[in-house]
């Protein structure tokens, strides 16, 4: 497993102070959520610390690293390169930290939109990125109410809120978000 201190040094080096502080808050919130849902800490903490490593790279570098991660990218992703910084960060972790843990890499790769392949750790990183206390679009009361839900219901609520926000800007949820929402609804309806 990667040394947390090495990841911290890399985050400080690659990101602006405000973005790095967001990553630190996301990591703390992800650990808090892991405790809340009875899950282990290590994967969520490391993934949250690393999730935005490539976020401030120029778009051409992000696309290049994302392609190294994925070989091919969908038309949708190529048309929305901002959604690729998770893929680019995952490649960076594989290349420079020799990380191979799929749970951690998927949590980083898919943190922006979510994805049906996310496991519980990945769902927590996705939710923590959206809910960390620096995100002023949520009140403490909303956070508290969200945490009453199961992890699956909480992620569904976030996807619904994202959809409303995007629609208000004339955009729509990504196919990965829609597929995750569909899968979670199916799983939830079947009581799994
Ligand atoms: N689920 C989604 N589906 C489609 N577009 C999205 C989704 N989530 C985020 N976006 C778009 O990607 C942009 C960057 O998202 P993100 O990286 O989460 O923002 P931030 O810089 O606040 O962390 C958003 O401004 C939005 O336009």
UniProtKB/TrEMBL annotation:
Catalytic activity from the UniProt record: P(1),P(4)-bis(5'-adenosyl) tetraphosphate + H2O = 2 ADP + 2 H(+)
InterPro entries in the record: Diverse_Catalytic_Enzymes (IPR051094), HD/PDEase_dom (IPR003607), HD_domain (IPR006674), YqeK (IPR005249)
Residues in HD/PDEase domain copies: 15-143
Enzyme Commission code(s) on record: 3.6.1.41
SMART domains in alphabetical order: HDc (SM00471)
Lineage: superkingdom: Bacteria
Name of protein: bis(5'-nucleosyl)-tetraphosphatase (symmetrical)
Gene Ontology molecular function: bis(5'-nucleosyl)-tetraphosphatase (symmetrical) activity; metal ion binding; nucleotide binding
PANTHER family the record matches: BIS(5'-NUCLEOSYL)-TETRAPHOSPHATASE, SYMMETRICAL (PTHR35795:SF1), SLR1885 PROTEIN (PTHR35795)
Keywords: Hydrolase, Iron, Metal-binding, Nucleotide-binding
Species for this entry: Oceanispirochaeta crateris
């Amino acid at each position: 497993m990667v040394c947390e201190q090495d990841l911290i040094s890399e985050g400080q080096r690659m990101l602006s102070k405000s973005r790095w502080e967001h990553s630190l808050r996301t990591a703390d919130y992800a650990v808090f959520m892991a405790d809340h849902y009875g899950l282990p800490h290590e994967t969520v903490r490391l993934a949250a610390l690393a999730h935005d490593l490539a976020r401030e790279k120029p778009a051409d570098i992000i696309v290049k690293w994302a392609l190294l991660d994925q070989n091919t990218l969908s038309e949708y992703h190529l048309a929305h390169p901002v959604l690729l910084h998770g893929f680019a960060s995952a490649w960076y972790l594989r290349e420079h930290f020799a990380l191979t843990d799929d749970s951690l890499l998927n949590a980083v790769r898919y943190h922006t939109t979510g994805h049906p392949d996310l496991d519980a750790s990945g769902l927590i990183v996705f939710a923590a990125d959206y809910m960390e206390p620096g995100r002023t679009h949520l009140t403490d009361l909303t956070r508290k109410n969200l945490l009453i839900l199961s992890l699956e219901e909480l992620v569904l609520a976030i996807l619904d809120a994202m959809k409303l926000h995007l629609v208000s800007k004339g955009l729509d949820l990504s196919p990965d978000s829609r597929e995750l929402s569909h899968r979670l609804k199916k799983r939830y309806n079947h009581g799994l």
